[in-house]
TrEMBL record:
SUPFAM superfamilies: C-terminal (heme d1) domain of cytochrome cd1-nitrite reductase (SSF51004)
Top-rank taxon, per record: Bacteria
PANTHER family the record matches: DIHYDRO-HEME D1 DEHYDROGENASE (PTHR47197:SF3), PROTEIN NIRF (PTHR47197)
Entry keywords, A to Z: Signal
InterPro entries per record: Haem_d1_sf, Host-pathogen_enzymatic-act, WD40/YVTN_repeat-like_dom_sf
Keyword field contains Acetylation: no
Organism of provenance: Rhodanobacter thiooxydans
Protein known as: YncE family protein
Leader peptide range in chain numbering: 1-30
Transmembrane helix as UniProt keyword: no
């Protein structure tokens, strides 16, 4: 997730507005909702999170073990939350300015991008101990895993590259130049290729993991700061969140054309998809969240509304349909808001 200096003031102002709206606005996640004005979500719980009320970043959920891994960037720690018991079960320190977290089920490992040290950290998902550290590029951020080749791909946001790590040896094996700032990186289970946002080029870059080479560049008309990315293999759609104009682009991965563009939460960041429900969540730095309904290749917006302070991170459980939002208030404790859809 991007923390460029020229965005700091705007995000600070957004946080103040979000905090004020929590007191003056009707709650956006409770009771009946009218289309577009409130989120069709019910708040189930708000659980205090450990550490200081500092910035949170990516989250990764293992639905089978009910473990949610949260990057507590401001505290340089990975927090482990048990979604079944609704309690924190571990805090893993010494992950400098952690941004990305990705649980890899087949390995029983969590990978975290320690941006403050320009490295990637491997964590045992049972003992919650750090087992390896690997060098990355300049400002490592989001990550994706290509299972066929046992490789982890890491967005080096400021370095203009993707770092490639062989997870069998936990060794960096390649650095792929992408050009310009790099947004999020995702794996497409259909082509078995990696896709990464080249956000200053307004492109989505396709990488062949067999060769670790760029094999295509897809131009994205209407993009401005294309940072967030989610790929739904079943629908052959890529959802691309643009932080500089608050747009969501819907890209057809078969035709390589943008099918639709939507206004979404201001300064959108993390995307999460509940595949069985067909709900796409777009979480914004502003504290707003957008929800869109995906049916096949048809996409329509359901609502955009304020959810909570700094609600730019979301993870969703496709079994229970519960969504998790770490929130950073202006003061007091950070907390994890747990919601479910109003159906």
């Amino acid at each position: 997730m991007n923390l460029k200096a020229d965005r700091t003031l705007r995000r600070g102002l957004m946080a103040l507005v979000a905090f004020a709206l929590l007191f003056v606005a009707t709650p956006a996640c409770s009771g009946a909702s009218s289309p577009g004005s409130r989120l069709p979500l019910t708040t189930l719980a708000e659980v205090p999170l450990p550490g200081r009320a500092t910035r949170w970043d990516y989250a990764s959920l293992d639905e089978r073990s009910h473990l949610l891994f949260l990057a507590h960037l401001g505290d340089s720690a990975v927090v482990v939350f048990d979604t079944a018991q609704r309690k924190v079960v571990a805090t893993i320190p010494d992950v400098s300015s952690v941004h990305g977290v990705l649980y890899v089920p087949e390995l029983g490992r969590v990978y975290a991008s320690a941006t403050g040290a320009d490295e990637v950290v491997a964590i045992d998902a049972k003992t919650f101990k750090i087992i390896a550290r690997m060098p990355a590029g300049d400002y490592p951020d989001g990550m994706a895993y290509a299972p066929d080749v046992h490789k982890l791909y890491v967005s080096d946001e400021h370095g203009g590259t993707d770092t490639v790590i062989d997870v069998r040896s936990n060794v960096r094996v390649a650095t792929i130049p992408l050009g310009g700032e790099v947004g999020n990186t995702q794996y497409d289970p259909v082509t078995r290729h990696i896709f990464a946002n080249a956000q200053t080029r307004k492109q989505l870059v396709e990488i062949d993991p067999a060769t670790d080479r760029v094999i295509s560049r897809i131009n994205l008309p209407g993009a401005a700061g294309n940072h967030g990315l989610y790929i739904d293999g079943a629908s052959r759609l890529a959802f691309i969140a643009c932080e500089d104009n608050s747009k969501l682009l819907v890209l057809d991965l078969t035709s390589r054309k943008v099918r639709a563009t939507f206004d979404v939460a201001d300064d959108p960041d993390v995307l999460a998809f509940d595949a069985s429900l067909g709900w796409l969540y777009v979480a914004g730095e502003s504290g707003e969240v957008s929800i869109l309904k995906v049916t096949g290749q048809a996409v329509r917006p359901l609502a955009t509304a304020m959810l909570g302070p700094n609600a730019h991170v979301v993870a969703v459980d496709g079994v229970t349909h519960q969504a998790y939002f770490p929130l950073k208030p202006m003061w007091g404790k950070s907390r994890l808001r747990i919601t479910r859809p109003q159906l």
